[in-house]
Amino acid sequence: MNLALIDILDKFLVVIWPMLRLSAFLAFTSIFSMRAVNMRIRILLAFSMAFVVTQQVTIPRIDPVTAEGLMEISRQILIGLTMGLVFQVASAALVVAGQAAAGSMGLTIANMIDPNMGNVPVLSAFFNIMGTLVFLGMGGHLIVFGLVLESFKLVPIGQEFFSQDMLGKMINWSSMMFLGALLLALPVMMTLLFINIGLGFVARAAPSLNIFTVGVPALILTGFVILILSMGNNVSRIHWIWTQSFLMLRSYLGE
Q1: Which end of the chain has fewer CB within 10 Å, C or N?
Q2: Which residues pair with 119 in a beta bridge?
């Protein structure tokens, strides 16, 4: 009986290290941390992937109750959170794009309570749904799982991960939140900017005209028309944002 318990404990100590990194990644990344993917599914995914990792990678035996083990626990959790941060920035770009477009159209008051993003405009939720569909359509979930499993070969357990170059990459990658949002919202923002300029001339030429009665419906209607016309380009831009996320994650891992 004691030998069986010792054998179970040894296997648990082997699985626990990859599971820490995978659990932190699944809990923090934007796609798999949604309410639709509940905690049971995430735990099952983390355990299944950790078991696959143990069959492909040699896991060092580290006692988790020692000082070295506690440091390794913190390191694995931070690695998982850092990898999840890549996709959090990409998802934030979609939310910021929706906020910028809604602000230009005058729809900032049309907010909704999203359990994943909080109180955001409806256009942010629309871009987020579109981004999720593009992510799944391009096989992003399979690419992500492949990169995360490969991370145990590129950054083995017990190896230091953070460096000054790593922090520089994280700071540079955060700019994608604004670059991606600008690419998605630019058609609507620029078109509505010219319409606002035209409405300004009209208000100056005819002061008695109630410009808000005419301008607000025109901005909303034009904004939706531009969104529909730019849908194909927005899909391509969202695809590019996710592709850059995969490349950045690979860069984080040292390739």
Answers
A1: N
A2: 113
